[in-house]
Amino acid sequence: MWDHRPTADELLDARLARGWVPTPTGTVDGPQILGHACKVQRVER
């Protein structure tokens, strides 16, 4: 539980710390990470 309203970066960091990885979405330009998760530099599965 947060003692304050978490920022988008804090929420993303918490997800990544639990092992979550963003799923690329197929686009006409190839697979891309969309939304705030695009800040994640490297996705390894």
Offer a few descriptive terms.
45 residues, mainly alpha, 1 helix
How does this model look, in words?
This protein is mainly α and 45 residues long. Helices cover 22% and strands 0% of the residues. It has 1 helix and no strands. It has one helix at 8-17.
Q: How do the helices and strands line up, and which of them pair or pack?
A:
Elements: H1 8-17
As a whole number of angstroms, the C-alpha radius of gyration is 12 Å
Shape: elongated
Number of helices: 1
C-alpha end-to-end distance: 28 Å
Mean pLDDT: 89
Return the structural class.
Answer: mainly alpha
Major beta sheet summary: none
Unreliable stretches: none
Q: Helical amount among residues, as a percent range?
A: 10-25%
Give the amount of beta strand, in percent.
Answer: under 5%
* Succession of helices and strands: H
The tally of strands reads: 0
Task: Describe what is shown at a glance.
This protein has about 45 residues and is mainly α. Helices cover about 20% and strands about 0% of the residues. It starts with 7 loop residues before the first helix and ends in a 28-residue tail after the last helix.
